[in-house]
Amino acid sequence: MQDRESWTTGALVWHLSLRWRAGVDRALAHLGLTHAQYSVLAPLHSLVRAGESPSQRELAEQTGLQPIYISKLVRALERSGFVSSERDTRDARAVRLDLTKEGHRTALQAKEIVRQLDHENTHALGGEGGREIAELHRALVALLDATDAADE
What mean pLDDT is predicted for residues 8-30? Predict the structure, then answer.
């Protein structure tokens, strides 16, 4: 076993994120989704449920993913029958996104699976609602905010 106590924070976050992503990939495989596709489908589902029809660029801003990556993931989700897209009538450069009925159903199932996986993954820290999870959440937000500021 490696001495993880000596790892840098970056190494710990990287290893954890790799395992987390692999776990989501395994958990969603039977739905025909990868973690990356879920990272687009779930926020798109939330936006559509709120009455929005976001463009790919707006979805990229919402997810923090690069627009070119969003475009590739949306194409894959369209091929799977989860997402539909059409050119914006007011801006020919923009593509507006929506979910199909199958996309709505799959997004709901996937969100529940990921919520359960999140609960299982955080059980070691007392689970959802615990003090340790709240502290971890605050620390991760602070790290993300710091990296956002460094990128500006």
Answer: 94
